[in-house]
């Protein structure tokens, strides 16, 4: 008896395969921006949590220090921008020397920073981008976050501009605790952004750092809350950092405690 073979299931034609590939490509194009946005949001959420805990630790330190904000832990070595960590880290459960394992002080979006580099004559007057985490650097005390203590910087600006801040101030004397910065991601002090990086409005030239307007950063305030806000930029003769001035109306922060 002759067996009759039955035809097997038909395979995809080339046209059908191309259609399927095109559909997958469209779905991927729709999905990846959503995934990227979710990852960015997750990093900001982690950063919010870090800033709130660090802020609370600073407040606990102040409560035990006659209500005085951090000044410096190592006179002549580090400014309050960085020295605050040594003063308050025991209040957030850290002991011993600072290290890259201090994950509370690591912003997940911290993957690059701007810094001055020495030229051939040995002068710090060339700005460059460093594609490393600031949190991994001992020079920054292994921290992505700085305290609002620039008022203790020495500034010999001939135009008379001075850095603002609250180092050494009585917390109870700060007039607008809901607007006054306590601690923030270090890019807020320039300002630029780790979370929404973009091209500067002016490229760095010699002693001039890269310039940004409305860069967005995570900032913790004296009253304990944190927010993701835009930072004002203004070109001030002799220096170009955002901590030289309080912003105009329309911005949700200030550096001075007055």
Share of residues in helices: 10-25%
> Which value, in Å, is the CA radius of gyration?
25 Å
- Determine the number of helices (DSSP H or I, runs of at least 4 residues): 2
Contiguous low-pLDDT stretches (5 residues minimum) are 155-160
Average per-residue pLDDT, rounded, comes to 82
As laid out across the biggest beta sheet, the strand order is 3-4-5-6
The end-to-end span amounts to: 104 Å
Molecular shape: elongated
> Helix/strand/pairing class, anyone?
alpha+beta
Largest sheet features: 4 strands, antiparallel
The count of β-strands is 6
Strand content: 5-15%
| Helix-strand pattern | HHEEEEEE
Would you spell out the secondary-structure blueprint of this structure?
Blueprint lengths: L13 H50 L16 H9 L24 E6 L5 E7 L14 E3 L33 E5 L29 E7 L4 E6 L27
Antiparallel strand pairs: 1-2, 3-4, 4-5, 5-6
Q: What are its keywords?
A:
single chain, alpha+beta, 4-stranded antiparallel β-sheet, two-stranded antiparallel ribbon, 2 helices, 13% strand, elongated
